[in-house]
């Protein structure tokens, strides 16, 4: 049954719901029967007698949300097609305009459903979607429409109302968010989701706005919320339109940027705290746009993901990083290793191990010259499958596995052993202000002590002051990386920087000898 038809049936039932029901009808039965007989005789009385049970049934259905007819109005397991959603949005705008009222579109993303599906299966995820749909319906007015428009996305089309301004919609969005984020127990397990919300009021749209433009505006607001999430709420505005247009322009350029060499690795040095020597470099993707200059990674990495170009980015980063390593070898630099970040999607590529082995052979480099940076959350969420096999096999080849952002996930000690992790890369949240904050210092010391007992190397990232650098060395952290050492730089600048860095180390040693 089409959603619009279901909605109209719902309106009829809601009107019936306003009529007296149940015991209230009984009080009117004598008057109704007498009036029917007086006006139409026995025939009219017979018709009333037949119609009364039918009216009782319809009224009862409007009261019972579990009745089959009520469930047919908006089944939670139906994904509304995009075209149908646009048609319903057009209808909502027309109704609001005809009544000189306002409407609104609210789009909600239930973050965490993907993880629940991976860990507990499709049945648990679908049961949770049904619960979320029911909660939304319960928190809204009978005339408001709740649509499921994706695996983790819902849309609300508000019925015409006097109050659909910014303040009212913000309060409504916050109430919906609280309701959706309540814990849900399914099959004995408690599940949580984070609800990010974007919305637009018809008051903020032009008079000629269509349902498509209203939905697009709400989705733009949702995209902004997701980039500031989790659990963020954003309203659509003209400034978001400009940001959306700029984003669309970047999305059109991003494919060409990969093939034309605009996106390439820059390298940030990592140094040993005991010797000061370069112990490796991390390859970081940078987009040098011919007109916009440097595009922040937070912008274009999401675009590459939407354009399904992450595998291509991985290929570019791997090839150019290994080529840079060969160039540094020829220049006489001692840079033991280059580390590359791989997303969970890339790590699920069944051909990843063979591709990396082939690239290393092509450049004549040993497997120990390549580091694989894997987020702790990826290891914690993916104990089995292709992703796990790829990481284990690369470790067995001799590639170094760095556990990135350590301390932000929940990887177990067993996982550290199983995935053959060589080094813990301590998240900068543990490093910031350790030279000034005693509690921060104790927490970091505990992490370093654990790593030492597990015979794992440690690297602190985000080191931004000489005080942090010095204290990390004193606490026994093996390697450091951050602005206090060097900012990311193109491959050609690494040659000059490395030589100057080596000269600084030699000067310090000579000064130490002369002082002795």
Automatic annotation (TrEMBL):
Question: What is this protein called in UniProt?
Answer: Diguanylate cyclase/phosphodiesterase
Species for this entry = Allosediminivita pacifica
SMART domains linked to this entry: EAL, GGDEF
Q: Which residues form the GGDEF domain?
A: 101-238
The terms under GO molecular function for this entry are: cyclic-guanylate-specific phosphodiesterase activity
Q: Which positions, given as ranges, span the membrane?
A: 25-58
Record key words, sorted: Membrane, Transmembrane, Transmembrane helix
Record domain EAL: where: 247-502
What InterPro entries does the record tag this protein with? Cyclic-di-GMP_PDE-like, EAL_dom, EAL_sf, GGDEF_dom, Nucleotide_cyclase, Rev_trsase/Diguanyl_cyclase
């Amino acid at each position: 049954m089409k959603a619009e038809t279901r909605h109209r049936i719902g309106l009829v039932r809601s009107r019936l719901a306003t009529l007296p029901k149940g015991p209230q009808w009984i009080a009117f039965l004598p008057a109704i029967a007498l009036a029917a007989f007086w006006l139409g005789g026995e025939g009219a009385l017979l018709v009333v007698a037949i119609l009364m049970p039918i009216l009782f049934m319809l009224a009862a259905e409007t009261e019972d949300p579990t009745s089959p007819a009520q469930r047919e109005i908006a089944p939670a397991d139906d994904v509304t097609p995009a075209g149908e959603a646009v048609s319903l949005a057009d209808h909502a705008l027309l109704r609001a305009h005809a009544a000189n009222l306002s409407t609104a579109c609210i789009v909600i993303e239930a973050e965490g459903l993907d993880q629940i599906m991976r860990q507990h299966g499709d049945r648990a995820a679908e049961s949770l979607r049904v619960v979320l749909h029911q909660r939304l319906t319960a928190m809204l007015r009978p005339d408001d429409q709740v649509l499921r428009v994706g695996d983790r996305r819902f849309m609300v089309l508000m019925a015409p109302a006097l109050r659909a301004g910014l303040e009212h919609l913000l309060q409504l969005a916050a109430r919906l968010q609280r309701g959706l984020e309540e814990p849900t127990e399914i099959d004995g397990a408690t599940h949580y989701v984070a609800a990010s919300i974007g919305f637009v009021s018809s008051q903020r749209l032009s008079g000629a706005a269509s349902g498509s433009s209203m939905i697009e505006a709400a989705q733009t607001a949702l995209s902004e919320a997701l980039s500031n999430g989790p659990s963020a709420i954003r309203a659509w505005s003209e400034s978001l339109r400009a940001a959306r247009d700029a984003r669309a322009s970047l999305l059109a350029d991003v494919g060409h940027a990969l093939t034309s060499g605009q996106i390439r690795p820059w390298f940030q040095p990592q140094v040993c705290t005991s010797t000061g020597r370069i112990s490796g470099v991390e390859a970081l993707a940078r987009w040098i746009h011919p007109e916009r200059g440097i595009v922040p990674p937070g912008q274009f990495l999401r675009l590459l993901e939407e354009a399904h170009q992450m595998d291509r980015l991985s290929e570019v980063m791997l090839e150019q990083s290994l080529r840079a390593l060969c160039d540094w070898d020829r220049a006489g630099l001692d840079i033991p290793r280059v580390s590359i970040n791989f997303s969970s999607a890339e790590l699920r590529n069944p051909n990843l191990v063979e591709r990396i082995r082939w690239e290393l052979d092509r450049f004549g480099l040993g497997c120990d010259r390549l580091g694989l940076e894997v987020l702790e959350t990826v290891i914690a969420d993916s104990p089995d499958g292709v992703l796990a096999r790829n990481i284990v096999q690369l470790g067995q080849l001799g590639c170094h596995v760095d556990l990135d952002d350590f301390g932000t996930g929940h990887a177990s000690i067993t996982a550290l052993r199983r995935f053959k992790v060589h080094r813990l890369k301590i998240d900068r949240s543990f490093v910031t202000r350790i030279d000034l904050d005693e509690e921060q210092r104790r927490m970091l010391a505990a992490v370093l002590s654990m790593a030492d007992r597990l015979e794992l190397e440690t690297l602190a990232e985000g080191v931004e002051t000489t005080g942090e650098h010095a204290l990390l060395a004193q606490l026994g952290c093996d390697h450091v990386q951050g602005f206090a050492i060097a900012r990311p730089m193109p491959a050609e600048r690494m040659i000059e920087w490395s030589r100057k860095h080596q000269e600084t180390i030699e000067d310090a040693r000579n000064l130490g000898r002369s002082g002795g």
